[in-house]
Every structure is written in C-alpha cells, then in structure tokens.
Write a structure and sequence with these properties.
- The protein is an alpha+beta fold.
- It has two domains: 120 residues, 50s Ribosomal Protein L5, Chain: A; 111 residues, Alpha-Beta Plaits, CATH 3.30.70.
- The strands form two sheets. A six-stranded antiparallel beta sheet has the order 2-3-1-6-5-4. The protein has a six-stranded antiparallel beta sheet with strand order 8-9-7-12-11-10, with helices on one face.
- Strand 10 and strand 11 form a beta hairpin.
- The longest helix has 18 residues.
- It is globular, with a radius of gyration of 19 Å.
Length: 268
C-alpha cells in the first residue's frame, strides 16, 4: 500500500427526477475536478426526488508509512481546492479510507445546482465496494452451480451508527468492513433504537469460527471486545464505544458461523 496513489471518490446527492438530470447537474463539477462518473443511484427511498452521482479522480497524495495522515490530507486538500468559501472540514479516518461530508447547501449549490450534500472519500488501494463488482462476478457464477455444501466459516458484521441518515451509516460501516475484507457486502440497514444498524456479509473464511472471529477482531485493532459467546456452532463478540458518542459508530458485533449451516436470505 505504501507509495500507492490515493483515489478520491466524490459522491453528490442531488435533487433530480432521473439519472440523466442528475448527471447533467453534476457535469460542471466533473469537468472542474477532471474526474469521471463511476456510479449513479436512485436514493429517493431515503430522500424523495434525489439521486446520487459518484465521481472518481486520482489524488495528488500518495500513501506513506502514515497512511491515515495521507488519507486525511487528501480529503482536506480536495475540499480546499473547491474554494475559499469551504472551511477545512473535520475528517473521519479508518484506513484504508478517510472521509468527510459537506452539507452547507448554499455553498454546494454553487458547485452543483440542487446539491443536498457531498461526500468526499480518499481510498488507499481503491474502493473495495467497486472492486467487488469485478472480482465477485466469477465467484457468483460458480455459486449458482455448486451442489456441495460450502466449507469454512461465514463472517457477519453489524455496525451500529448514531445518525439519522442511511447513507451516512453505510459509509461508516463500509470503512469498518474494509479493514477485515476487500469485498464486504451490505445486506440491510435497520433501525436499532435511536441508531441505524448496518449488516454486512464479510464472506467466507477457511478457518474455524473461533479462529476466524479472532482474526477479524485483530484486523479491526480495537480493545474492549466482550468475551466470545457461543450459540450452537456460531461464535459472536461485541464492542461498544465508551463513552457513547452522539454521532458516529457506537457498537460493533461480529458473528462467525460454519458456512455449511449458514442460511441465505433474500431481501424483499
């Protein structure tokens, strides 16, 4: 990772009736930052009449021994390049990513007409969510014809986030998952009291549930995990933030289940 160019992803949530209108609204920003649109999405289920447009461009920063510092610097440098009217933002960092959200609509409207908010992410090694699209396709095809039970362990992650926006919760859950695997897949986002819980399928491990769970905990690098609890052959451990923050990640839960016993569910 050290020495790699960092990638910037700029996601704009914009008021629009359809994808064409959303892309047209973001065309000026795409030219200004010399980027390219890599993804669009209808987010009207979260905010009626809104679309998201994600733009990719290379950052002038490179990963160093202090990857977190380089990631945060890449985000701040990009925001400063948007103009003096944008103050230096607070940046959240969970290597291999760092991010900030801009929500001053009058300022954003000058960049993208109708913009609701703008997410700036810096990635070392590329965005795992987009790598998943190309890397997971052959495996998915194999799964359709596989008759024998899957061996190994299935890892599941739940991230509880204090936020009222589903997109904000997903961004933070992706950052946590990327510390364990390259291609975690968000399966659902559900209210959990005053929080939003993001459920992530981290894929399979060749190790036993106990070893897979300890490896995942080690990758996250946090202290204060609760003792492992067993339910049949499944192992679970939890982490809670102390003190509980008013915004951001409040708790994590990791579960390891023998893959042969894992039950797939299809979201409605």
């Amino acid at each position: 990772m050290v020495g790699e160019d960092l990638e910037l992803l700029i996601t704009v949530v914009v008021a629009a009736d359809d994808e064409q209108q959303a892309r047209a609204a973001c065309a000026g920003l795409v030219r200004r930052v010399d980027g390219r649109v890599v993804q669009t999405g209808d987010c009207s289920d979260e905010e009626p009449g809104c679309w998201s447009v994600t733009v990719s461009r290379a950052s002038g920063e490179r990963a160093t021994q202090n990857v977190a510092g380089a990631l945060a610097r890449a985000v701040r440098t990009f925001v400063r390049s948007l103009g003096d009217e944008f103050p230096v933002p607070r940046v959240a960092c969970e290597p291999p990513t760092a991010w900030t959200v801009l929500e001053d609509q009058p300022q954003l409207d000058a960049l993208v007409p109708g913009a609701e908010r703008l997410l700036v992410e810096a990635w070392a090694g590329g965005d795992p969510q987009r790598r998943e699209v190309t890397e997971a396709e052959p495996a998915a095809a194999d799964a359709e014809v596989r008759a024998e039970p899957e061996a190994g362990t299935r890892l599941l992650l739940r991230v509880d986030v204090a936020t009222d926006r589903s997109a904000g919760a997903e961004w933070q859950a992706r950052a946590v998952a990327s510390r364990i695997v390259r291609s975690g897949k968000i399966t659902r986002v559900a209210p959990h009291g005053h929080l939003l819980s993001v459920h992530v399928d981290l894929g399979s491990s060749v190790n036993s549930p106990s070893v897979a769970l300890l490896d995942a905990v080690s990758s996250l690098g946090r202290s204060g995990w609760a003792p492992v609890e067993w339910s049949g052959e499944s192992a679970t451990t939890r982490w809670s933030a102390v003190p509980v923050p008013g915004a951001g990640i409040t708790a994590l839960e990791l579960t390891a289940t023998p893959a042969s016993a894992f039950v797939w569910t299809v979201p409605d």
